[in-house]
Amino acid sequence: MSEFEGKKGEIYELKAELNSDKRERKKEALKKVIASMTVGKDVSQLFPDVINCMQIDNLELKKLVYLYLMNYAKTQPEMAILAVNTFAKDCNDPNPLIRALAVRTMGCIRVDKITEHLCEPLRKCLKDEDPYVRKTAAVCVAKLFDINQQLVFDQGFLDMLKDLLSDSNPMVVANAVAALSEISEQSPQTKIFDLNGPTINKLLTALNECSEWGQVFILDAISNYSPKDDKDAQSICERITPRLAHANSAVVLSSVKVLMKFLELLDQQSEFVQNLYRKLSPPLVTLLSAEPEIQYVALRNINLIVQKRSDILKNEMKVFFVKYNDPIYVKLEKLDIMIRLTNATNIAQVLAELKEYATEVDVDFVRKSVRAIGRCAIKVEQAAERCVSTLIDLIQTKVNYVVQEAIVVIKDIFRKYPNKYESIIATLCENLDSLDEPEARASMIWIVGEYAERIDNADELLEGFLDGFKDENTQVQLQLLTGIVKLFLKKPTETQELVTRVLTLVTQETDNPDLRDRGYIYWRLLSTDPKAAKEVVLAEKPLISEETDLLEPTLLDELICHIGSLASVYHKPPNTFVEGRFIMKKNLPLRSRSYGEQENNTGHTTTMQTNQQPQQVVISGNVGSLIDDFDILSSMPMPSSNPMDTYEQSQNRTASAVPNLLDDELSSILGLDSNLGGNQTPMMNTNTSLPNNNRQTTSIGNELEDLFGDFNLQTGGAGISFSGNNVFVPPKEVWLSAAKGKGLEVSGTFVRRSNQIVMEMDFTNKALQPMNDLALQINRNSFGLTPAQPLQVTSPLFPNQTVPTQLILNTTGPIMRMDPLTNLQVAIKNNIDIFYFNCIVPIHVYFAQDGEMDKMTFVQTWQEIPEGNEVKHQLQNVNNLSIDDLQNKLRLNNIHTITRTAIEQKEMLYQTIKLTNGIFILVELRITPGNRTISFSLKTKLERKFPAAQGAIRCVRYNIDGNYCLTSGSDRTIKLWKPDGSLAIKTYTGHSQEVLDVHSSFDNSRLCSGGVDKRVLYIDVMTGKIMKKYQAHAGRVQAVRFNEEATIIFSASIDGTVKIWDVKSREYDPIQVLDDAKDSVTSLSLGNHELLTTSLDQRVRIYDIRYGKLFEDYIGHNLTYINLSHDQQCFLVGTLSSQIMLFDKVNGKLLQTFVDYTNNTYMIENAFSNDDQFVYSGSENGRLICWNLLTAKQISAIEHEPDNKKAVSTLTHHPKEDKLLTAQEGTIYIWKKKDETEEKEEEIKESFINKKPINVPQFVSGGFE
Amino acid sequence: MIGGVFIYNHKGEVLISRVYRDDIGRNAVDAFRVNVIHARQQSRFPVVNIARTSFFYTKRSNIWLCAVAKQNINAAMVFEFLNKMIEIMQSYFGKISEENVKNNFVLIYELLDEILDFGYPQNSDTGVLKSFITQQGVRPVTREEQTNVTSAVTGQIGWRREGIKYRRNELFLDVIESVNLLMSQQGQVLSTHVAGRIVMKSYLSGMPECKFGINDKITVENRTKNQLESTNSNNNSTTNGSTYPSSTTAKTAIAIDDCQFHQCVKLSKFESEHSISFIPPDGEFELMRYRTTKDISLPFRVIPLVREIGRTKMEVKIVVKSNFKPTLIGQKIEIRIPTPPNTCDVQLLCMKGKAKHKSSENAIVWKMKRMGGMKESQLSAEIELLPNDKKKWNRPPISMNFEVPFAPSGFKVRYLKVFEHKLNYSDSDTIKWVRYIGKSGLYETRC
């Protein structure tokens, strides 16, 4: 009671004070009233007393009274009427502030009776001379509209408001825009705020001058405008871009909104758009240094922008790295964006960050980080392995929620890369007991069920789950049911009991209809048709998309239109969180296409037409494929010709290895001698490559037996079809599976049609969205296949649509040796991604039409080719087929019969095949009539050298044990070879220009290299990763060496220094610089405790490392190369005056001079033989020279190629055997000494027998000095 | 638009409630209190939607500011507005505290009435607001003054009123840069950027037009084209400041990634001619903000060495190196080395300054008043830990604070010219002061 009285007393007191004469007391009283009002006390009794105060001409007092009025007018409408007069009077007050105040307050009093009286003063104020009043009045119209829409229409306030758009004061314009926008949003049917060109122009002008908030209103309004055409859009964009530099983030985001929207209308390729992209990213990044709340809004919007146009921020990954003190909402959002920006190039960085985050404190954040690692694995295939191992590490931490989260993502990884990482299942199973969340449990069960056959105790595991079946979440129950059925199908014998148990449980004891139904279906399937059950339950899983949580595209487009607003923060369309009102759905403008007839149409029909267009395509596409089908049907081979087909297939296969002539492994098997002097280097021929029908196989020929074995198996191969003119066409095979092609499936084959190689392909879209912009490229290959025309596929390709296409190929493209030779690497691009795949080109498409040879030439060639070059084979299983038919069939495939004879009741056919690259293959067929076998032998010789290399080799080096060699070349790469197999093992990149020297460490684990780009690289051999990059030389690096323990790299450079680098240290500065040379240091050689260098200052320098002394020897010639003998007593220096000099290292005496070769310009390398008996050197006339060390007599000078006088500058001696490697231009040669025991000089001259060029492919032309 | 603005104290009692729109009921005030302030689980987002009403909030010390809306409004604008409101209140009555809000509630209502109309933010420039919303009850009396006010609120130059007069025309430019760094344990720079602000205090008469030149790459390139100006700008009255760094960085131009300007700067002119011209507000304001990421000279480097010896002991060694000209001196250096929560004893040894372990903050705070350039200092600490079975302590980064008298980005003011056509004073009559301050932003090294 006392409290009540107290209150009453208080109000009584206030009443008294309000009525007092003194202004100050009145004011104090009013303040108290307002204060009570704020905390929610009812002070409505004071209404009349407060109204009385209105009369006083005091702005501050007035404001307080008005505040009171706004609050209580609604509750006491009758009393509020009393205020009307005062309002009317105030609206005529000479003080604009008072006029404005009156108008402002009137609008806030939501009493119908007052509203009526409002109209006149408002009208007046809308035309007030003072802008302050006008801008207040503009807002007042919106207020009035909120109270009484009809009144606003009737009184014509809207037109007045529209007039204000042309007001001279920008603030008035801005408020008018705000008011109009709101009105038109609330009643869109009235079309009250139709934006047109002139209006936009006015708005854009006002934009430059009004306050930050005004700019937001105007920009938001402009975003609703749809420009006439792309020029219109562009000019608006141009005028808006300066706003991106505004300090107010709302202005920035609203500008971004307009730009993002109008970007849709612009030509995406144009320079303007590219510029815009560049301008958009910095302001967005800047937003991330604002207050955290604004950061949050910005990040939510960036998330949308990145999904729509990932290019804008693709290089800004680092700014999204989480800071320790970021609020959790900022952290989570940054993480999300990081994943979206992840790609193969920045994955390493991202993964390192994510690992860091996974150890943080906040559970949600850690969970999301773990999940993010999984998403990286799914997104970037190259990094999948690293991600999986990171996840396994995290699982080892045994932190419960981390383990669960990791298992959920590993399930997704399993789905993306089936059968790749099952090795980790065991680790997962260890954590079975700790899983308590339904999602993790369900995931684990899925994994167990899916890989049941590889988990020994899968049944026990699943049984364990089954025990508490009833308490599980539905998700887990469903998964468990399916998992056990899968298990049963895979291990039917042991698990019968289990499956019955689960099915009974599910069908009889559960209330969940989903579960029960699924149980019944399984039961029925299993009992009636287990095979069908298998097909259903173990069916191939649909593709898992890499972006699992992308917004749906239409929603994304809608949200883009709401950038900056709440919808963009919630990522929900406005109608889901805004009440009642009808909300216009916004969408991105469509770029009009320049189809002639469409331009004349209205928007409505345009959409109709675009919808129709693809349908037509579908029809025509189907027709095309139908015709193709007919084509194949009509030309199905006759049954009788079947054996011939197989024969022919075999023939094709046989020939397919022809270009593999250079495979020295094979040659050594066949024991082939090479002819040094003759200008025709006979090359052995043939092996067989496996057919490519079912699998891609290699044609490395060292295992002939196996191949022939396989061959026999394949001769019965089915499914061969002939097209129209009986040209052999292998059936189409799937080149790119939908799983790899993100829904795009490509199958195809090659065929020779009218003397052209044609690639026939079917494109099938198995994804859910249409594909367009298909394009195709072919990598360099053995036969120089290259598309003769662009790919012609009618796009877009709609879901489930198949489009066949033909692509004519030329053989004029760049050549690179492939392994196997018929391998072809193809890249296909569409709007989603670029895909790469390999396919095998059947060799017969390379058979040229003009392969017929003159009879005499044939005989001559046949005899010239030694027996060793012949491969013989017999074909079983051949039906009787007249020889004429055989000939005809073969001719159709460009296998030409030259002559035919009969010897000893055998029919002999002599035939030729010519490949597109000019190689002839000679065939002898022996057919015994009545016998079902055809035997044939093939021979060839190489007529033209296989052109492969396009760059020069700068250095060849054996590794420490001579099993491998390294080459470096002008193509900026380093290659690792197995020289005896001519097998390129790995290519190392990292130099930006020619690589001049390379050296491998004692344990073959590291490389060092130096090049024209002044860099010294330290490379890991296995991974190819650049461990260190030293860049302190001022000129090209001429030579590099490891020390014995490979802890130090010496590098000699044209800048006159030798720099010594410690690879173990973290410093990137050399540990020592030897700058004694007065000119370029050309080479260096390492002894046990010495470093020898040569320089163009004509001196040899010997650094004794033990004593720290330097010995200088003046030679008097420009020195290019130094080599220390194996006993370390002498050294050999190459000079630019065509002589090699041998010095005693200890006393510097000249021991011998080797002459008779040319070396005037290049740096020609030299070598000792292993026993220091011979000296080898290259020469500038294309020869390899050998001298006897003691007598200095030249033993041999062997030409590399008969007509090639190009310099042989680099060579390396095998560390153990008597072998040499040299390089001339792009080819590497291996030289082997024939017989060490023979002393006679003449014979030594012939001693290098195995000259074998290795072709070095993949040289990049251009781009270096 | 904004439907209402509420201010609460930390207990959730409402201090200010101003409702602009009919769709926001009285219950909204309570909804926020119940669902956010008193919520059992702390809300994790700065925007919450409760019963189809969106609440935007931010917290300053222990005061909650909240804006409410029912429509799909511009969220960035709301937060910008809330920040602006805080700024205005601070400039009127200082720190935002419960007491200050309570004492000034009439003023706050008056301000809210002026800066938000029907939920639309209106002119919110502090200078202009102060000219007609005053606490003392001193109001413009003459008509002329009244129109001045209204034109200031609405006019093209909403940030400056006419007829300002000073006896001495003077201006101060502060280039304040905060260097942000995230460095990995191994000393690798993970990310770094400089957020720069140019704060100007202008005491100029009339309506002066200013032109501002900086050593931005693009601007400099533009300038070399028209050599004309460069000769004019060498009036060295600009460089009165004693702290002017003559040549901390040798480079002539820097690449500014992005910059933002006070609304007084003519953006279209900047876009087209790359010149910064403006009519400054009277008094202090932030003219420009910029961000650079390239070629930042990091003033300090922290090299941490943390070793955990067994379960109960840790050894920390921190080396700080200063990396600027020896003639300059860095000030207010503070290094904060986080320690695990189960720390029981810390033995500290430092070569310079004072170090203290603050167990309440779980950190060792090492303070040095000043440190010269190219110097190095070291701190070593032995930390004894209580045995703790809880999960591993994840090491928060070591953070650092400092102040250096140069701009780490290499930013330089080239000229600032003042033109006032109506009044009779010229560029050379104004006294200009320039000062460069490099501060630490988030300067962290992971350990």
Automatic annotation (TrEMBL), chain A:
Where it sits in the cell: the answer is:
Endomembrane system
Q: Where is the composition biased (Polar residues)?
A: 595-604
Q: Where is the Beta-adaptin appendage C-terminal subdomain domain?
A: 847-961
A GO CC term assigned to this protein in UniProt? cytoplasmic vesicle
Major place of residence: membrane
Which keywords has UniProt assigned to this entry? Acetylation, Membrane, Protein transport, Repeat, Transport, WD repeat
Region (Disordered): which ranges?
Answer: 594-615, 632-654
What membrane topology does the UniProt entry give?
Peripheral membrane protein
Task: Please name the Pfam families in this protein's record.
Answer: Adaptin_N, Alpha_adaptinC2, B2-adapt-app_C, WD40
Domain Clathrin adaptor alpha/beta/gamma-adaptin appendage Ig-like subdomain, residue spans: 731-838
What is the protein name stated in its UniProt record?
AP complex subunit beta
From TrEMBL, chain B:
The secretion signal range is none
Q: State the annotated membrane topology for this chain.
A: Peripheral membrane protein
Q: Which PROSITE patterns match?
A: CLAT_ADAPTOR_M_1, CLAT_ADAPTOR_M_2, MHD
Q: MHD domain: which residues?
A: 168-446
- Gene3D superfamilies on file: 3.30.450.60, Mu homology domain, subdomain B
- Listed binding positions for a 1,2-diacyl-sn-glycero-3-phospho-(1D-myo-inositol-3,4,5-trisphosphate) are K354, K356, K358, K367, K369
Per UniProt, subcellular location reads as:
Cell membrane; Membrane, Coated pit
One annotated GO molecular function? lipid binding
Q: Which Pfam families match?
A: Adap_comp_sub, Clat_adaptor_s
Q: Name one GO biological process term.
A: endocytosis
This protein's source sits in the domain of life called: Eukaryota
- The ranges of region (Disordered) come to 226-247
GO CC, sorted alphabetically, is:
clathrin adaptor complex; clathrin-coated pit; plasma membrane
InterPro entries per record: Adaptor_comp_med_subunit, AP2_Mu_C_sf, AP2_Mu_N, AP_mu_sigma_su, Clathrin_mu, Clathrin_mu_CS, Longin-like_dom_sf, MHD
What does the UniProt keyword field contain? Cell membrane, Coated pit, Endocytosis, Lipid-binding, Membrane, Protein transport, Transport
Compositional bias ranges of the Low complexity kind? 230-247
Which PANTHER family does UniProt cross-reference here? AP COMPLEX SUBUNIT MU
In the record, the note on similarity to other proteins reads:
Belongs to the adaptor complexes medium subunit family.
Name the UniProt record assigns to this protein: MHD domain-containing protein
| Annotated organism of origin | Rotaria socialis
